[in-house]
Amino acid sequence: MDTYIYALIHPNNGEIRYIGKADNPELRYCSHLNTTNLRFSTRKTAWIKSLRKIGLKPELLIVDKVPLSEWAFWERLYIKLFKLYGMKLTNTTEGGEGWHTGIGHSAKSKKQISLAKIGQPLPPWTRERKLKASKAHTGKKLSDYHIACLSKAKIGKSAKRNYFNLSGLRGVTYEKTRNKWQSRITTHGKCTHLGRFATKEEAARAYDKKAIELFGIGCYLNFPINTVI
Which of 30, 86, 196, 222 measures 20 to 30 Å from 77, CA to CA? Predict the structure, then answer.
């Protein structure tokens, strides 16, 4: 049985920029252009995204047809050969390892990357995935597995509260004239009154239920989600 060594080349000058192996090169080529795969941060994806910005895409070139049992040898050979020819390959390894998503990071570098991303907006694909998950589970009873998979940064915690909110709970204020705790929620600049309650915990739970109804399970809550649903 045979397989193929293929290349991704620049559409304008024909320069070879990536060498890979595939049993079905056309299918593999499509996966390189797939938006989901472009979320990985590698030299290859950075090059493809730079082409897409100017309305171009790489072209596929079949380099060789080789025995399946020897593909690793031939992939390493062609990567080394084209580098000797002066080609600026985006391959991050010497080849022969199979599918690879990029250079691995040490535990220390992973921690530094994580700290650097705190406070930054989520990438589009992450926001879309969380939104779809929230909509899919809104109004449904969650299993213990789903609850365990929810963002630990949000379960039982609150987003930044108003400075004048002395209740310590999101969406809850004390109404002194009635000696009651008031619950309300704001959506698109419109404040909705949810009622008055004898305790602030009851008011907070009313807020949590309405927040899940409006925003889904990924929203900020006062209490752990398994105690609300």
Answer: 30
